[in-house]
Design brief:
The complex is a heterodimer of chains A (395) and B (99). Chain A has 395 residues and is α/β, with parallel strands linked by helices. Chain A has two domains: 227 residues, FAD/NAD(P)-binding domain; 145 residues, 3-Layer(bba) Sandwich (FAD/NAD(P)-binding domain), CATH 3.50.50. In chain A, strands 1, 2, 3, 4, 5, 6, 19 and 20 form an eight-stranded mixed sheet that branches. Chain A has a five-stranded parallel sheet with strand order 8-15-9-10-11. Chain A has a three-stranded antiparallel sheet with strand order 12-13-14, with no helix packed on it. Chain A is elongated and about 65 Å long. Chain A starts with a strand and ends in a 16-residue tail after the last helix. With 99 residues, chain B is mostly helical. Chain B has a single domain, classed as Arc Repressor Mutant, subunit A. The radius of gyration of chain B is 17 Å and the shape is elongated. Classes of the chains: A alpha/beta (395), B mainly alpha (99). The interface between A and B is large, with 48 and 45 residues.
């Protein structure tokens, strides 16, 4: 027999944390499944340890993890059943066919029961694969890096800038030594560069894969992109970037990127590319690449929901109603519904939880989320053109 | 896809499918990501399209001149992440095995 919960929230980043806490505060029995060993998602990865001074000075951690402390405290006080290290295996609506799933309306009733199959963390008692029936599901699966397809991308020593971020946030590690090259564009690339430099690491070169002006645009988007609080980070971004870029050669308008090496050597040996009409080759051990982030759409794809292409983000996004509902009993919130950043994601999650509560008759009012973040959430998305749209052509 | 995707670039790492393999499939007259998948195994591996789905839609759109909405995306299948068969066949999931 499946266990039954009022609400299953998938993902414990800013959107999922807000959704789960709000629903539990409203009296619902909430199961929060999250793949990571601690709540926070990618943007607040390992926030608990960092805010306690375990990774970096606490003054720095309070900037990097702005908003995380309050969200984690709220989760702890909310009574949410949070399962860290749990992996989503399958999600299905047994009672409805694919043709009815695309209607973005959240009608109550037994047909809205969603069957979730998930794997408990390593070390958990049997059975490790479990099934939970949920009266409602809020999927907050966040973003993923857009894969960069170029020859040599699969070689050891090539990684997404997001992976460098993960090592930094999880373990306080930054790449160091000779031959660290970053290639790409967008706020996350600049932030990672700044973090590597601030931590004393060296970067041999930056290859700008964006169109002219994209790096300046990325610098302007930097505070909002990662922190979700422009007021806090806007001060000091200019200085941070000047320090990050000082002494680092930047190659503009890079095309024809290629990584060279073999699987035997454990790292690449060089990168080649064309910049300003000249073919170039640089020795390199580690190449971090970045082409923006896109919604992680695996839940909505598995449910065969309707998607539309968002040209600004260069990715499909699920079709939602005003509260974020995508099908009876199912909501998709946060970056997984379209890239908007942590601040918008939290409001989005809150709003979906209010809709779930309203459906059960437990919410006093709908749409209680308000303020500038909520207004921005209403306009949401499209804030970070994921890549140069004009370049989205093959060769 | 962009200007860095030469024919020898891997588009699907799970199934070792290169851009040239996708182009060859398109050249036979098939269209759409799911037909490319059936022909080349692109997107059929354990990551279920996390790497190749977005680039594949954009590659096909660029090659055919169709909009990404017309091209569509890879369908995906459970399990979303690899799971041990012995875990999957637990009595709760497959009651017949507990008899």
């Amino acid at each position: 027999m499946s266990k039954v919960v009022d609400l299953c929230v998938i993902g414990a980043g800013p959107a999922g944390l807000a959704a789960a806490a709000r629903a539990a505060e409203g009296g619902l029995h909430v199961l929060l499944l999250d793949e990571q060993s601690a709540a926070g998602g990618q943007v607040w990865r390992n926030a608990g340890t960092a805010l306690a001074g375990g990774l970096m000075p606490t003054t720095q951690a309070e900037k990097v993890y702005h908003g995380a402390g309050a969200a984690l405290q709220r989760l702890a006080a909310s009574g949410v059943d949070h399962r860290a290290g749990a992996t989503l295996v399958d999600i299905a609506q047994p009672e409805t066919g694919p043709e009815t799933k695309s209607a973005p309306e959240a009608a109550p009733g037994p047909e809205a029961m969603v069957e979730i199959t998930w794997r408990a963390p390593f070390g958990a008692e049997a059975p490790r694969v479990r099934q939970t029936a949920a009266r409602a599901v809020i999927a907050a699966t966040g973003a993923q890096e857009r894969p960069v397809i170029f020859p040599g991308a699969e070689l050891p020593g090539v990684m997404g800038v997001g992976a460098i971020q993960t090592a930094y946030k999880q373990s306080g590690l930054v790449p160091d030594g000779e031959g660290v090259v970053l290639a790409g564009h967008g706020p996350l690339l600049l932030l990672t560069l700044a973090q590597i430099r601030a931590a004393g690491g060296r970067v041999a070169a930056v290859l700008d894969l964006g169109p002219p002006g994209a790096m300046a645009a990325a610098a302007r988007a930097l505070p909002r992109a990662l922190i979700g609080d422009p007021a806090l980070m806007a001060q000091g971004v200019g200085l941070m970037l000047r320090r990050a870029l000082s002494g680092v050669p930047v190659h503009r308008g890079v095309t024809g990127l290629r990584a060279h090496g073999t699987h035997r050597t454990g790292s690449i040996e060089a990168v080649s590319f064309t910049s300003a009409g000249r073919a170039r080759r640089l020795p390199a051990r580690l190449l971090g690449v970045h082409d923006g982030v896109i919604p992680n759409a695996q839940v909505s794809r598995l449910l065969s929901l309707r998607h539309v292409w968002d040209a600004g983000q260069g990715a499909f996004v699920p079709v939602r109603d005003a509260d974020g509902a995508v099908a009876p009993g199912i909501w998709i919130v946060g970056d997984g519904a379209g890239i908007g950043g942590a601040g918008i994601a939290a409001v989005d999650g809150e709003q979906a939880a209010l809709a779930v509560l309203a459906r059960t008759g437990r919410a006093r009012t709908r749409g209680a989320a308000s303020g500038p973040q909520a207004r921005r959430a209403a306009f949401r998305r499209g804030a970070f053109p994921a890549r140069a749209d004009g370049r989205a052509c093959h060769r | 896809m962009g200007v860095h995707a030469t024919d020898d670039a891997l588009i699907c790492r799970c199934e070792n499918v290169r851009v040239a393999d996708v182009l060859a499939a398109l050249g036979t007259g098939i269209d759409g990501p799911n037909r490319v998948k059936a022909m080349t195994r692109c997107g059929m591996g354990p990551c279920q399209g996390r790497i190749c789905a977005n680039p594949l839609t954009r590659l096909i759109a660029a090659e055919t001149g169709w909009s990404p909405d017309t091209v569509g995306a890879l369908r995906i299948r459970p399990p979303l992440k690899p799971v041990l068969l012995m875990d999957y066949l637990a009595p709760e999931i497959v009651p017949e095995l507990s008899a």
